[in-house]
Design brief:
The chain is α/β, with parallel strands linked by helices and about 220 residues long. It has 8 helices and 7 strands. The chain has helices at about 20-30, 40-50, 60-75, 100-120, 120-125, 150-175, 195-205, 210-215; strands at about 10-15, 35-40, 55, 80-85, 130-135, 180-190, 215-220.
């Protein structure tokens, strides 16, 4: 796309974190319209100050996501990009310390990814320049017993993101058109300190050919 991300509408899911703020700043500065989504309106206020449209939504709740997607559609908003930042870390205690409660808490990130990508799948496929990205972990390649729950969920999220990539490519082939949508995985050892780099790398995806960046894993920061 000649103008890069400029003129696109991008959803930042789980936007109230430091990485969400950094991504929103980078997107707004580059000329994108940002929709920042989180669970608490007070935490979203700084994102409104940046110029983002904000929405309170539990992205792990399929019905809430569907209702929000319907609101955007009724407003004539079509989504061109998605940065998925829903998640967190729980671990420790070796394999026996991998509790069910911790797993279910981590699993909400996977559920949110599934819900938002299905809700805006048609928009993304119809967009002249769509990019989606998740933030994963180097733990997927080298899982440890004390982080088994976390690594398992991140591996599942990567599988979903790669399935999206195949779906984007297949849709373009089936329609006999050039591919315009891409799904990318960013991997980090730890995200702290890399927030600005993540924002810049995500914005930069629009400067690359969709077919070239689709189904790629991009490492951020020092390798593990």
């Amino acid at each position: 796309m000649d103008d890069g991300v400029r003129g696109t509408t991008v959803v930042v899911a789980g936007a109230t974190s430091a990485s969400g703020h950094a991504a929103a700043r980078a997107l707004v500065a580059a000329g994108a319209s940002v929709i920042a989504v989180g669970r608490r309106d007070d935490a979203l206020a700084p994102l409104r100050d940046l110029g983002a449209r904000t929405a309170v939504c539990d992205l792990a709740d399929e019905a809430e996501v569907a209702a929000f997607a319907a609101i955007l559609a009724a407003d004539g908003v079509r989504v061109d990009g998605l940065l998925h930042l829903v998640g967190g870390w729980r671990g420790g205690g070796g394999l026996r310390g991998q509790t069910e409660a911790d797993y279910r808490a981590l699993e909400s990130g996977l559920s949110a990814l599934r819900h938002v990508t299905r809700a805006w799948w048609d928009d993304l496929n119809a967009s002249p320049a769509a990019r989606t990205a998740i933030v994963s972990s180097t733990a997927v390649a080298r899982p440890l017993a004390g982080g088994a729950n976390y690594a398992a969920v991140k591996a599942a999220e990567e599988a979903w993101a790669r399935a999206m990539a195949q779906g984007f490519a297949k849709d373009a082939r089936d329609r006999g058109v050039a591919q315009t949508a891409a799904s990318v995985i960013f991997r980090v050892r730890a995200l702290a300190g890399l927030e600005e780099a993540l924002g810049s790398a995500f914005v930069g995806l629009w400067d690359a050919d969709a077919a070239e960046v689709n189904d790629t894993i991009v490492g951020l920061g020092a390798p593990n």
